[in-house]
Here is the input.
Amino acid sequence: MDVGNPPIAGFNSVPGTDGLTTQTVYDVDLTDGVGLDSTAGISVTNPLGGTYTVSLSTAITKLAEPTAQGGAGISFPAGTPGSAVVNINAENEVSFSITDAQGRSVMSGQMSSPVAQAASLLSWSCRVHDTLETIGNDVFLTSISVDARREKGTQLILDKDPTPKAT
Here is the structure.
């Protein structure tokens, strides 16, 4: 076996049934309308034959929605592109992670398998960073998480004197 070019099930004349292949797809600019952020998405080879399309456009739309609707109110204006990573396992299960321009995770989740249908958002969790919360007379820097059931959780990061208090 050539260690520099190992056989991968489903590629280069190796039958897809000869192993389990996981694929990773990246998009470093979620503001350009090309790749994972477009509704057309990215064409991915199915190791068992054929191709399918992977798009995060529904996830990006959900991310921009208010927290009351299960989003984080986050969009990516020009000049501050977010990025995304999609992993497709051997069962064609799709998981993803979206980060903001500072490299912080703002959304992760799972999409339905795109093999038999257009992929849809199954579950997700969004994170809103740098949110100020007033508790009594003190203002705290917090991070809020919102899940697919629209349940919110708050994580205290620092208070007004910026001494770390709890994480």
Q: What stands out?
A: The chain is about 5% helix and 40% strand. The two ends are 48 Å apart (CA to CA). The longest strand covers residues 121-135. The mean pLDDT is 84.
